[in-house]
Amino acid sequence: MRIGVAWTIGVAIVLAGIAAAGLRGQPGAPEAGEAFEITAYCVRGTTKSGARVREGMAAADPRVLPLGSIIRIEGSGDWDGVYTVMDTGAAVRGRIVDVYLRDCEEALELGRREARVSVIRRGWEPGAIEPDDRTGGDRSSL
Fold this sequence. Notes:
Elements: H1 2-23, E1 34-41, E2 57-60, E3 70-74, E4 81-87, E5 96-100, H2 104-110, E6 113-121
Parallel strand pairs: 1-5, 2-4
Antiparallel strand pairs: 1-6, 2-5, 3-4, 3-6
């Protein structure tokens, strides 16, 4: 009987810890307009997705926002807009979005601030996109 009670209490403690971690903004699918920490980077190179960095791209924790996710940032001032998650980063963990800015001084100006992030599309499946026979593979006319 004691083992059953101890086991039940142990499970309850673990579940409470998991729930509390979720409340602190740990990995998981964000709700619409959820608070994130926004930062910026200006280092040129290739993203985790294989694309060269350019404005409109962002880095995020893939457990929260997988590569290919399209997000809207609001409440960050001049940096509000729509971004595509194409990168990850060692320091980008949990509810952090690191937007790419070409100008390093502008990236420093953004600093670290809180903003709302809404997910327009969560992730992608590049292999699932097939050329459209009617357009000869060009989907832009659809």
